[in-house]
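We emphasize that the prediction below concerns an isolated chain of 261 residues; any contacts that depend on oligomerization or on bound cofactors are therefore not represented. The input was used exactly as deposited, without trimming of termini.
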Amino acid sequence: MEYANTAFKTFGSWFVLILLYAVMFAGTVMLILGMIFLMGSLMMVAAPTISSAADPAMMTGPMMTDPAFGIIASISVFLFILGTIVTIFASIFIYGFMMRVYRGGELALNNWGKMFIEGILALIILFIYMIPYTVVSTITMLGPMDNPAYLIIVAIIIPTILLIISMMVGMMGVIKFAKEESFGAAFHFNELFSIIARIGWLRYLGYMILISLIVSVAELVLLCIPFAGSVLLVAAMPFIVIVTARFFANLYDSAIPAAAE
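Result of the prediction step, given as a token string:
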């Protein structure tokens, strides 16, 4: 909290971060609306096809030929693509900013090119760490899902454990990348497992759950405020992210001297 309060010397930096989160929020809204409109268009277009089994005359009904459906579908695809691009673009800069929080010291919103590159590399690191979970969860979906034992143990418990481990190691890998400014450092598995062991796997997991609950409750409370809630949430997100990122950076630092021994 103290670090977040003294991270910036001017309100201009806070305003830029708030604006960045507003852009990401707008992109997310466009993405969701695009998905909703697109699914609705597909359902409306498919309706005559379903009823055509009973009445072949419905094969070329008004829903299939009405130009409005083509317009709605085009707008839906445009919103989805634009929202995806805007969200990813803003997320890259946000992750690049988080790398600076992980490194510590005074924050400065400059050298945007480096921030952009580090944001991309951080997302790539997280993507790589999620590959084992994605592969295992996909494979398990091909098994006998109608078997309760298989569903609970193989399809749910094992992928969940793998997801948690991937998230825990991946976060420490990103922090190590930020501090050493080396992409390969994010995959020094022996060092990462040693650091997590020094912190304590259960303690680390407990902190992740606790922070997630606190942030979720704070976001939910803000969203419950009519009209102004979304604006307040966007304004509060930079502070929340700085506090959270700095917390885990401090946790990482607390294990470094012991790990070096």
